[in-house]
Amino acid sequence: MGSIKRFNLGRIIKEYNCDYFFETGTWKGDGVAYANKFPFKKIYSSEIIPEIAQRARARFSGLDNIEILEGNSTDVFKAHLPNIKGNCIFWLDAHFPGAEEGINKYNDYEDEQVKLPLEEEINQIKSLRKGYTDVILIDDLRIYETGNFASGNMPEGILPPKRRNSLFVNEAFGKTHKIIKSFRDEGYILVLDNEIFTKNNTGIRKTFFDLRNKLFKQIY
Ligand SMILES: C[S@@+](CC[C@H](N)C(=O)[O-])C[C@H]1O[C@@H](n2cnc3c(N)ncnc32)[C@H](O)[C@@H]1O
């Protein structure tokens, strides 16, 4: 499991003018707790397992800026994305319902759109978030690709997606966004608005991306 702590959300907020944070897959709520250190107007997180969602609600009770939304991430996206009127940082981290918690096995869910909702999440962001310069951070690239991941490749026995590649990210955002892969931890994909990325001279940063990875704890 990767960590949103790899990302300097404060810098991303400034560069991309983001007011909102939306995570898919809440689990213990550690991603939400990290996001809450930054000045977001609102933090949303969706979780499919009811008892996990309830526990996270209890953890953040009394914090009006945090909303834990129970349900399949793509159903939650459909209901909420059209109402978010500002740029958003997405942390897409929903997969294998209840497996990290130990209440389900990794291969228990047969419906791939529920077990691995990333492709559908990406398509929904593309269609429901037109006009915004959202930033998309994706965890666990190694589910989709074999590579030189710091934490190794996917353990054997966990069934990979039927279509095992991340081309759907390029298909949706390749023309408008800079798509950067990192092989730290279990792997990440960063999807960053082309115009802002280039304007901020981050093109130069890209050249030194691998070097930076070795030198700094954070990826962006
Ligand atoms: C890797 S954990 C999330 C960790 C968390 N994002 C963090 O940064 O600390 C994945 C979580 O996604 C949930 N999940 C899996 N499939 C889901 C789906 N289709 N919709 C919503 N949540 C899902 C799992 O139950 C699990 O709690």
Share of residues in helices = 25-40%
Order of helices and strands: HEHEHEHEHHEHEEHHH
Oligomer: single chain
CATH C-level: Alpha Beta
What is the CATH homologous superfamily assignment?
Vaccinia Virus protein VP39
Outline the low-pLDDT stretches.
none
Question: How would you explain this protein's 3D organization?
Answer:
The chain has helices at residues 9-16, 30-35, 50-59, 73-80, 112-115, 118-128, 167-173, 194-199, 202-207, 209-215, and strands spanning 18-24, 42-47, 66-70, 87-92, 135-139, 177-182, 188-193. It has a single domain (4-215), classed as Vaccinia Virus protein VP39 (Rossmann fold, 3-Layer(aba) Sandwich). 33% of the residues lie in helices and 19% in strands. It has a 7-stranded mixed beta sheet with strand order 3-2-1-4-5-7-6, with helices on both faces. It is globular and about 45 Å long. By secondary structure, it is an alpha/beta fold. Bound molecules: S-adenosylmethionine.
